[in-house]
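We were asked to recover a plausible sequence for a given structure. The inputs and outputs are reproduced exactly as logged, with field labels preserved.

PROBLEM: sequence recovery
POSITIONS: 762
GIVEN STRUCTURE:
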């Protein structure tokens, strides 16, 4: 074996033994060894020997007693210099970490890291000394300090560092239920620590929660960055035996690595790679998930994950929360002291911009240093303008149009290539004098044309999928309640929704059996024309894909809101139960089932299902608002009022909680209480379009009418009509106000409208 191939084998082996997951290790070996079967076989043999030797040394053998091995191995009680080993607290592919007691000149607990027996190759020793030198160069309160170093009696190097008794940063934050702001304050200290490392010329390259531990000092959390085992020097070697990345070695942990690390070319990694990994850590702190989840690694494999990191843009944090299941989103929100709506609202905007800037695939568009990243977060925390910003609307629309155009342009190219192929075939057939030669040429040309057509068709399908994803993403953006509240964007929003409906209509015309296209058009129609508009499309989606719980749940929602006719209530009940049968974790389906039962007069059954919904759901303000709403409708007024009050207590800043409580107090005859709660709700969200937005305005306007403050009631009642133009009550009350103000024509018009709407809204 040549020196080069030996170094390649050693490099691959060094990484492979640190990958515990068998499938991940296999993916890595396939990438690193390529087509060299002999190299892969040799690496696999050495990896197997490594782990077999570890198992052998951990138990007594037949040929060699454990007593004979003791002088060669470290164990609790062993003295290494002035350090007594107490217990093993960590292990990697190349080294073992012990908690040890320093005996002189002071007694204290420390961490001692030592190379494993048999792993003292030049490459491993180089990495080990690189870590020791990297830590020794730094002096920062949030980086574990090196205290000492040396060699054992057998010549194996070790070093001693500060003992950090903590837990991974994400786990600590979740267990302690830290708020978003507290998480960000703690995260900024990590950014400053990494900035210090960068200023010392060190890139960490493996930032992840398990390498950022949190301990408590005087009752306050303190983050410490550890494990510089794959650190890289900037511009100069760490030691004469510095780590050097060769032969496409992958350095880092896949879920946290930057796009340039995913290229497996360590020579092109700079400090902005750590900025990306910090962005992943921030993303996980905020959402409880990494941008590209563990499921992607398990399902698609390491190569596909690396390609995703290099080529795809992840969902922004607030969007990700909306994609989680009800149980998962509630868990994530609860760990941050919020409900799902509050967490989404908190992340939307500046935090989305900041995190996505750190996660830019193009590193020139990222924060250029960890310090810049921390500074922008601190600006957010101090309510100052942040450096990061959203992509402009024009930029997003251009991308959408470009992607949409590509789908149709590529399809046209496919058709053109087929026409050209046919023309060439006819021309060749006419050349009878050269039949054999031209027949062979025609066959080759047609084969190439078919291959080209297949290739173009695949590109068309890929671009078609990209266009569809873009429209779906746009639909989610225009569905955002806060966008709807900006009156100046009303026409733009309507135009985008109409474009989305047209887009999905074309998809349906091209593929009439595409259930998802019907469901997506239904969603757009609901946002554009009201809750009853999507019924036909959702019914079609269910007919095409009867096993999709989301479609059944959507129909249960629509039928429970719509006409009061019994057949609609029965359909709501049937679809809710079918959704639960398919997916018992769809919590809202239980609420729709209970609502439908109540509407059908089956009060005891409804009460039982509402209680089941309560028991399955997290105890959040949002849950209690829904319980208050449902129980009031079946006549359980005292429990309903109590749940509404608990919702406000759990989240005093919840618009929905105050809006629901105001509605129930109004119906209970407590006008002053209703006015107070509705005023609070509107102060929280003056332009809200949420479920209780119209209710809050209706309540306050109605109370003002009862007080005789007719002119003052008009603005609130008009706003209620704008929000829910299909509901009769605000028209009825505004008509009363106009009548008392002697504006009889307006009063009559409102009363006529209320009469028209009453059968469908009550």
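RECOVERED SEQUENCE:
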């Amino acid at each position: 074996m040549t020196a080069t191939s030996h170094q390649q084998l050693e490099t691959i082996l060094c990484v492979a033994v640190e990958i515990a997951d068998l499938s991940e290790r296999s993916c890595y070996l396939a990438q690193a060894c390529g087509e060299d079967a002999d190299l892969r076989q040799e690496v696999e043999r050495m990896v197997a020997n490594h782990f077999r030797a570890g198992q052998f040394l951990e138990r007594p053998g037949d040929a060699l007693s454990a007593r004979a091995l003791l002088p060669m191995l470290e164990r609790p009680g062993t003295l290494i210099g002035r350090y007594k080993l107490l217990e093993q607290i960590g292990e990697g592919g190349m080294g073992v970490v012990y908690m040890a007691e320093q005996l002189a000149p002071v007694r204290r607990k420390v961490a001692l890291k030592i190379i494993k027996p048999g792993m003292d190759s030049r490459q491993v020793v180089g990495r080990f000394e690189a870590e020791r030198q990297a830590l020794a160069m730094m002096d920062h309160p949030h980086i574990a300090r090196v205290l000492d170093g040396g060699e054992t009696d057998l010549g194996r190097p070790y070093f001693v560092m500060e003992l950090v008794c903590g837990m991974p940063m994400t786990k600590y934050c979740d267990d302690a239920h830290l708020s978003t702001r507290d998480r960000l304050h703690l995260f900024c200290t990590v950014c400053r620590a990494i900035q210090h490392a960068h200023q010392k010329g060190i890139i960490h390259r493996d930032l992840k929660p398990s390498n950022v531990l949190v301990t408590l000092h005087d009752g306050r959390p303190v983050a410490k960055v550890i494990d510089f085992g794959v650190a890289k020097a900037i511009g100069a070697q760490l030691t004469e035996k510095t780590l050097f990345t060769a032969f496409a070695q992958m350095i880092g942990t896949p879920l946290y690595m930057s796009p340039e690390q995913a290229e497996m070319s360590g020579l092109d990694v700079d400090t902005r790679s750590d900025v990306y990994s910090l962005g992943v850590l921030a993303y996980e702190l905020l959402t409880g998930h990494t941008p590209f989840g563990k499921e992607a690694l398990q399902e698609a494999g390491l190569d596909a994950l690396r390609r995703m990191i290099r080529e795809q843009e992840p969902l922004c944090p607030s969007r990700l929360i909306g994609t989680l299941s009800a149980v998962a989103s509630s868990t994530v929100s609860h760990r941050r002291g919020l409900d799902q709506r509050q967490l989404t609202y908190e992340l939307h905007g500046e935090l989305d911009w900041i995190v996505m800037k750190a996660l830019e695939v193009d590193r020139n568009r990222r924060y250029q240093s960890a310090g810049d990243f921390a500074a922008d977060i601190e600006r957010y925390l101090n309510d100052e303008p942040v450096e990061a910003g959203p992509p402009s609307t024009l930029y997003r629309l251009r991308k959408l149009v470009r992607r949409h155009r590509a789908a149709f342009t590529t399809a046209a190219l496919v058709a053109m290539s087929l026409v050209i192929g046919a023309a060439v075939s006819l021309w060749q057939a006419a050349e009878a004098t050269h039949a054999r030669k031209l027949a062979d040429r025609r066959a080759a040309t047609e084969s190439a044309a078919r291959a080209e057509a297949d290739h173009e068709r695949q590109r068309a399908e890929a671009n078609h999928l990209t266009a569809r994803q873009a429209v779906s993403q746009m639909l989610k953006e225009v569905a955002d309640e806060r966008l709807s509240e900006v009156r100046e964007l009303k026409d733009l929003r309507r135009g985008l929704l109409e474009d989305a409906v047209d887009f999905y209509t074309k998809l349906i015309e091209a593929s009439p059996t595409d259930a998802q296209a019907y469901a997506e058009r239904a969603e757009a129609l609901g946002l554009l024309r009201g809750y009853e508009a999507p019924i036909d499309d959702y019914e079609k989606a269910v007919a095409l894909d009867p096993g999709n719980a989301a479609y059944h749940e959507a129909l249960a929602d629509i039928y429970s809101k719509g006409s009061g006719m019994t057949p609609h209530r029965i359909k709501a009940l049937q679809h809710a139960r079918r959704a639960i049968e398919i997916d018992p974790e769809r919590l809202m389906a239980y609420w729709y089932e209970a609502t439908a039962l109540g509407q059908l007069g089956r009060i005891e059954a409804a009460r039982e299902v509402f209680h089941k919904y309560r028991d399955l759901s997290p105890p959040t303000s949002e849950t209690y608002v829904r319980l208050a709403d449902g129980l009031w409708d079946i006549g359980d007024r005292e429990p309903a009022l109590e749940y509404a009050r608990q919702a406000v207590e759990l989240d005093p800043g919840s618009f929905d909680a105050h809006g629901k409580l105001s509605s129930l107090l109004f119906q209970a005859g407590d006008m002053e209480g209703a006015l107070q709660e509705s005023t609070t709700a509107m102060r929280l969200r003056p332009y809200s379009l949420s479920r209780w937005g119209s209710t809050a305005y209706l309540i306050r306007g109605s109370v003002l009418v009862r007080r005789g403050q007719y002119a003052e009631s008009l603005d609130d009642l008009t706003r209620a009509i704008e929000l829910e133009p299909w509901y009769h009550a605000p028209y009825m009350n505004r008509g009363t106000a106009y009548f008392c103000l002697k504006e009889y024509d307006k009063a009559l018009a409102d009363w006529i409208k209320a009469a028209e709407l009453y059968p469908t809204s009550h």
